[in-house]
């Protein structure tokens, strides 16, 4: 609730504007009986979020009051509300530091818009100040919240400090990064840093149609559709006072994008089959695996993007974090060795040498898959270098020469042809195992299945 101090000697106006403020928003109008000078003290003014001030009053008048207020609390927004409709007077008071100049009788719509803009700007300024002060720190305040992310990379450490800075706010966050860079781990760390009391809930929206998306996110009431024999809460309700992470948001259908935009604009949503809105108290965090310009050039709504990306976190691909390859490989090797009950949890030098020279188009997810596969084959009697070299040399995306694609396809291929080839060879490489094939080429299981079904239908 915002506390508004109203300084005016017109009792009728004081009662009138107080009623208006209570009807247009979460405002607490305060009209003290004490003299004006008793209000013009720092200890008093700091109790309020804004001041309404009339011009024509007995001493001190509006000009003197404004001057005193701005000298004591320079950041205090002061709205001049007067019966004098003069452009010259308005300009004069705005130059003296007034936030806005409104005339009596008050236009309720303009007053509401002015206050909405005022407190939105104030909120953004406070958040910017919070982020700036936090980013200037060289150390993390809560390093334990990032324990699942293995890195020594400076850009990643800057991302951690940024996450700590924005975590206390409730604004949407978009995490941008290639598949396999750890976007979900970053979202989990953001939730832990936020201190929010509710749950952390995830939803992968790739390949999900609008009906499934709406039912999963918003829930439904009994009788909403055939088979809906009882009401069911959606993930938004499950994540109340917590965080909901929407992965692969770039694949969201147009109809679902519109519903998500409405949720962000109003904070309300409708369970399927219900005419009664519910209020969402969940923070929305999303992830995309493609560059922003490519996202906006497609069918993704620009207005939705700007709503979702109040804060943005960009995760670098593993090829730009080469100093992390060794640490990640050692971690995954030890983890897999324990699971397979191998005698040594220390990776051989040959494994680290091969991995250090690989570009990892599938990023951390691919690195983990390669280490696990090498150890599984080692247990079956194959050498680790043999397994890794076979993977590295057969990966169709490892070649960086411009002529390589032409020689492979006989012509410069389309993106669709490359995608089809990747999916086909990944299925051959894994013997038709879709989960392993998805890991190899760096896609989620849902996204891989969707592309595989499209390929089979052609």
User: Level of helix content?
Assistant: 40-55%
**Principal-axes shape call:** elongated
Amino-to-carboxy terminus distance: 58 Å
Number of helices: 21
- Indicate the low-confidence ranges by residue numbers: 396-403
Structural class: alpha/beta
Strand order, largest beta sheet: 2-1-3-4-5
Which strand-content bin applies to the residues?
5-15%
Q: What does the main sheet amount to?
A: 5 strands, parallel
Please state the CA-atom Rg, rounded to the nearest Å.
29 Å
What is the arithmetic mean of pLDDT? 88
Number of strands: 14
List the helices and strands and how they pair.
Elements: E1 2-7, H1 11-24, E2 27-30, H2 36-39, H3 42-45, E3 50-53, H4 62-72, E4 78-82, H5 87-95, E5 100-103, H6 108-135, H7 154-166, E6 173-176, H8 183-194, E7 200-204, H9 210-218, E8 219-220, E9 232-233, H10 235-238, E10 243-247, H11 254-266, E11 268-269, E12 278-279, E13 283-288, H12 292-297, H13 302-308, E14 311-314, H14 323-340, H15 349-356, H16 363-379, H17 384-394, H18 402-409, H19 415-429, H20 434-441, H21 445-457
Parallel strand pairs: 1-2, 1-3, 3-4, 4-5, 6-13, 6-14, 7-10, 10-13
Antiparallel strand pairs: 8-9, 11-12
